[in-house]
Every structure is written in C-alpha cells, then in structure tokens.
C-alpha cells in the first residue's frame, strides 16, 4: 500500500522542531525550502549558507540572484519551482555536509519530494547529485546529462556559487539551464502528442512516460551520457 503524502506544512513543522544533530545548536533558523508546492521542477542544493540561515530561505544573496537569472534562461521563474537543500541547517563556516548529517536530514527531503511529486529534479552541486542518484560519479562528469532516479528525471548542474568563484563554469551553467528549458519543452510536446498516438495505436498501449526506457532524441545527447548504476528510489 503506498505511503500517504505528508503536507508540506507538516514536514516544515518537523524540520523546525528537529534536533537530531549538532547543527541545530548553531542555527539561527531552519531553511525548509520555498516555492510552488506542486512544482514541475524541484531544485535541490546542498546546505544553507550565512544569508540563508539568517533569512530562513534557500538561495538568497549573490548565488540566489544568479539562480534567478539561470531559471529565466530555462523559461522559469522562482515561483514556478520549489527550491530545497539536502541539509536544512547551516554547517558552521559553510563547510561541506558530513555523511552523518546527510543521513539524519535527508528523510525530510525525501518526504518533500514525495509530496511535491516533480517531473524533474535539478541537483545543484556534488552533494545533492550524489545523494539523489546514489552514485560516486562527480558533478563535473554528470552535469548537463539527463538521468533517472525511480520515476523522476534528474538533471545535474553545477552549483551557481561555483560560477561566482570560478568564472569558467558560468558558460556550462548557462548552457545546462538552456538544455533544461529544451527538456521541459520536449516533454510538453511529448505529452501533447500522446493522446493522438493512443488513438492511432489502440492495439498497442503507449508506454508511460515515467518508465520510458530512453528520452526523446532531442533531450540531450544520450549516447554521451555517463553510465550511472540503477539509482534507488528517493
């Protein structure tokens, strides 16, 4: 029997009350996530920084401003998507998330994902990509390639902050968000064509998009995509 979805506000209350790890002792406030509760695209970053900890919202400051520009390249606005992080509390000094912190905190992200039920999950940076795809392949190899995690389409991209510190990543980031826009439009076209195809081929039921073996030819160069072992469900 499927597990019932938990309302986002209930998950938020759980996050705000959480004291499972020492990060709770140093936080100003938790950073649950923000955006469209029925978003087609879920953006997953790594952990809150100083500004996020102060404001209680993910991706504010320079990285957030740049993310807004990148979303526009994909034909999206901030209110169209839902933005969350792997960790809900800021690690001291903005250090990398630790494995035990990820293990304790990610059940909240799993529940958010089940409730929002996005079509695409965009992972920003190494930690969110490795967690979602259950892989050790790094973001440098995976960025800009369409992957799968269960029924979800996963599209890894460099973290926007990477381009602030390393200008050479700016072109890759902008190209990948342009590709995300192409993927969304291709999916729209596929869905629009599906009813007509079902009428024309009633003898052979169409395969559901969520379990399609391969993406359409214009959904990135699939032949060049790095092989990722069969990922686990979120």
Provide the CATH topology: Uracil-DNA Glycosylase, subunit E
- How far apart the termini lie comes to 17 Å
Shape: globular
Question: How would you write the strand order of the largest sheet?
Answer: 1-3-2-4-6-5
What does this structure look like?
- The chain is α/β, with parallel strands linked by helices.
- The chain has one domain: Uracil-DNA Glycosylase, subunit E (3-Layer(aba) Sandwich).
- The protein is 43% helix and 11% strand.
- The protein contains 9 helices and 6 strands.
- The chain has helices spanning 8-17, 23-26, 50-55, 61-73, 99-116, 126-133, 139-142, 160-165, 170-200, and strands at residues 34-35, 41-45, 82-85, 120-124, 147-149, 152-157.
- It has a 6-stranded mixed beta sheet with strand order 1-3-2-4-6-5, with helices on both faces.
- Helix 1 (8-17) runs antiparallel to helix 5.
- It starts with 7 loop residues before the first helix and ends in a 34-residue tail after the last helix.
- 39% of the residues are buried.
- Mean pLDDT is 87; it is low at 202-225 and 227-233.
